[in-house]
Amino acid sequence: SLASAHLRRLTFDDGQENLDGWSRDGQWLYFTSSSREIAGGDIYRVRASGGMPMPASADRFTNEFAAAPSPDGKSIAFSARGNGPTQWWRRGHSHLDESEIWIERNLSTSGYEKIVDRGSKNYWPMWNADGRSLFFMSDRSGAENIWSQPLSGEARQLTQFKAGRVLWPDISLDGHTIVFERDFGIWTLDVATG
């Protein structure tokens, strides 16, 4: 706990593991691990109290990363393909960065649905509080910006940056505000007003 400063290790694998996020109920931690993946990473979840990590997505030949559990805890959104967090940033477009965003609708049946197609870097999916749309970072406009994507419908660009990077975005529980790093500062975005 934060009050006691007690630390406890939850995973014990030899591969690189990146923490992706918490479930809304605080019971699960989602993370990406390279320990059993040929193409980069798979997404796992482990109870916050400890225990055996369980695969949430595990396509052995596809890099999967940046998991975002849905508000109801029944689905996850994640980025797939591309090099993800292992690719060094370079100015301008690179086909190595091109990634998609998928949803796994029911964690127990492993049914996947592509929400955002390739052709650009599409990274860090975040659920709106109602669970009917996603926000994410994409460079499809030429620069990295925040976009909104209904689960059925067209994507819409929310920020209008012409250059620079948008890093590590995260959304508030009520779905009203996204925070992200840009130009060595922390920025906020009101998703209703832009």
Main β-sheet, in a few words? Answer: 4 strands, antiparallel
Overall helicity: under 10%
Secondary structure tally: strands:
15
N-to-C series of helices and strands = EEEEEEEEEEEEEEE
The rough form would be described as globular
* Radius of gyration from the alpha-carbon trace, in angstroms: 16 Å
Structural class estimated from helices and strands? mainly beta
User: Strand order, biggest sheet?
Assistant: 1-2-3-4
> What portion of the residues fall into strands of 2 or more residues?
35-45%
Any low-confidence stretches, pLDDT <50, length ≥5?
none
Count every helix, treating DSSP H or I runs of 4 or more residues as helices: 0
- Mean pLDDT across the residues is 86
Distance between the termini: 36 Å
3D architecture notes:
The protein is mainly beta. The protein is built from no helices and 15 strands. It has strands spanning 17-22, 28-33, 42-47, 54-57, 64-69, 76-80, 100-104, 112-116, 122-127, 133-138, 145-150, 156-157, 167-171, 177-182, 185-190. Strands 1-2-3-4 form a 4-stranded antiparallel beta sheet, with no helix packed on it. The mean pLDDT is 86.
Summarize this structure as a short list of keywords or feature phrases.
single chain, mainly beta, globular, 41% strand, four-stranded antiparallel beta sheet
Secondary-structure blueprint:
Layout lengths: L16 E6 L5 E6 L8 E6 L6 E4 L6 E6 L6 E5 L19 E5 L7 E5 L5 E6 L5 E6 L6 E6 L5 E2 L9 E5 L5 E6 L2 E6 L4
Antiparallel strand pairs: 1-2, 2-3, 3-4, 5-6, 6-7, 7-8, 9-10, 10-11, 11-12, 13-14, 14-15
